[in-house]
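User: We ran a pulldown and think these components assemble together. Before we commit to crystallization trials, I'd like a predicted model of the whole complex to look at. Sequences follow.
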Amino acid sequence: MSDADRPQDEKTPFFKRIFGRKDEAPAEPKEEPKQEEPEQEKPEQDRPGWLRRLSRGLARSSQAIGTSLADIFTKRRLDADMLQDLEDVLIRADLGVAAAERIKEEVARGRYDKDVGVDEVKNVLATEVERVLAPLAKPLEITSRPFVILVIGVNGSGKTTTIGKLASRLTDEGKRVVLVAGDTFRAAAIEQLQIWGKRLGCEVIARESGTDAAGLGYDALQSARESGADVLIMDTAGRLQNRTELMAELEKIVRVMKKLDPAAPHAVLLVLDATVGQNALAQVEIFGRSAGVTGLVMTKLDGTARGGILVAIAEKFDLPIHFIGVGESAEDLQPFDARDFARAIAGLE
Amino acid sequence: MFEGLSEKLSNILDGLTRRGTLSDEDVNLALREVRRALLEADVALDVVRSFVDKVRARAVGAEVVKSITPGQMVIKIVNDVLIETLGSDAQPIDLDAPPPVAVMMVGLQGAGKTTTTAKIAKRLTERMKRRVLMASLDVKRPAAQEQLAVLGRQVKVDTLPIIAGQTPVQIARRAEEAARLQGYDVVLLDTAGRTHIDEALMAEMAEIKRASSPHEILLVADSLTGQDAVNLAKSFDDRVGLTGIVLTRVDGDGRGGAALSMRAVTGKPIKLIGVGEKMDALEDFHPDRIANRILGMGDIVSLVEKAAQTIDAQKAQKIAEKMRKGKFDLEDLADQLAQVEKIGGLGGIMGMLPGIAKMKDQLASANLDDRLVKRQRAIILSMTPQERRNPDILKASRKKRIAAGSGTKVEDVNRLLKQHRQMADMMKQLGSAKRGPLSQMASAFGLGGGMPVPRPGELAALQKQMGKGMPELPPDAFGKGGLPGLGGPKLPGLGFNPFGEKKK
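Assistant: Here's a predicted model for the assembly, 853 residues in total across the polymer chains.
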């Protein structure tokens, strides 16, 4: 989001004025776990590492949008051009045209043709984004035993890594976690999960590549019941949501598990890559239809992508957002916090 | 992947097609919608802006050729600018260097680098007969090196033996040396996924480049990427100097604006596209075809070419001749059905047609798949030759026998006969049509009777015809029994609607 993106073409001077100065400003919303205040302190002491990473990321995203906003709004009259630029800033964050337009109108309400300050605009923006996201920031609650979590998503969204991090988190809480290597398609996906299992000391239930994932899930659930595990997390092969036959396979995994426990899987987490654009809407819709998604995890927020699509998703679907991924190590999975996320998008520290 | 955008643009420009003259206001209205459609397709904002400006500059004051409508003129200009932005030619991977030629793959985590590496290895080995060595430099993600090794065994390409504890740079050096000593032509270096703001990893990537001096550095990027596509493409390009881009997951239902963005911002060609999970699901990128698809014209060129390769031209001509005379019998229908299967089934054809994205979903849910084609062939094959030539003799008892013989029901037989009749009627009309898009369509396609081998001029004419005929079709034409974007109520060269009555 900067002049970097701009193609060779000439731009209006106005545009240049607004965006021309900044360097590639990365952004990544990130947030700290505010909703569990006590927990938040702990990591701060125990793991200075992630907090630093977090703040660094926060600074990046803040700079990105914050600088843009500052350029637009410092001591200026709110006119149509400025509003257009505000919308552009939001579009660059992947909010999508509709959500960006709506928030733009929110900002304009009662302020049109008046002098506005940067902070005011940032606050309105943050409030608006937070208002949309806040009801969806819910922790993942482990309510039964064994609690079955099915992890799904398109290829390369970060399912296996998320499972590793989630297992680490739950293990730290004292839960006995069993992992199921349900990605029987991709080469070495099973090994990847097994390595995570070894790191964390979790049992990993796996069969050879190419076996039926639904049968594996059934057997794994049975074995987890017998062994008294607290949580069973099942990996699945990545699949594009327009592949009907693969979505049917996902349905089958769920269906077969229900034979053993009608409540299973207790949570179906859809893993979304923050770099994804508007296609995330289709992913949420279709995965939701096939597998009954119960919550979202957004990964790769440690890059420059801001994951603004979550705002559009939140406006359309009533799905809790449980976690965000901000890096590759085990502690880089954080609870989703709407306020932090919103303030990061608005450029407020 | 671009269908969504195609539909949008064709809907927008549809309004213009029927107007006599094009005012500034018209252009602005259309372009505002073009902008929105492009943004919804995830084309980066700045790219959209420059794109729209270019189109406007060219559209205003452009001379509208007499025989076409102003709307078509706008479509053409949008099309031209799209092609320019995407690059005008397909560019293959360049191996023109002293062996071993190093090819380095870079990208974000989860973009599809490892899978793409194996696909490229297979392609170079099988199509270009090169000896290829693959090496995974990914020491970060658990089991990444094993993944490449497993894929190597699958595609029968050697991988560099894994030595635990080596750094990526050391592995790159070892790969280069092994390739040189063992006489490999190409060495593919699969690097770890990295975020372009991770300074340490970006520095490492630059060091790998220095150590291996790759001839090609390919950015592997997800076609589903949003606005961030420009940031990532530019960062990687600035840091190591990309030579090309490989787009993955093009078989998804993303609108693929990232392709446009990355190409525009780096100027680097998109060399290959990944279109599936199988190891041979890698295709050349054809900018012009993709542009056509964006515009809602479908990948007609691809379809025609593919059909030309697989369809028996002589047989097709014969059928065309019969159609013209209204003597299209069930035998001919069976031949056509067989050809549908040869082109890659209905799914294969549908994928190349414009404006089909939404319908594809409907089709999938209605279970209209290739089994239908197979079943219809079975019905015809259960008839006697006499019955096939003269369907009128089919009475109840014969139909019962045919249904039993083909494992279908009498209703199915009736439905097929009805379709055949409708088709034959339509063929006759087509054959006698003297003017209008239908007759041109008919002749372009050898009267709908299979694909003639297309001559270049014919293709161009066809393209033009497509451009004209398409936007005038109502968006729901398919629901009424035709396929949109073909200027006529049928599949080209298939001469009938294989979907039967539309089940909604």
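Chain A touches chain B through 59 residues (CB under 8 Å). That may be worth checking against your pulldown data before setting up trials.

User: Thanks, that helps.
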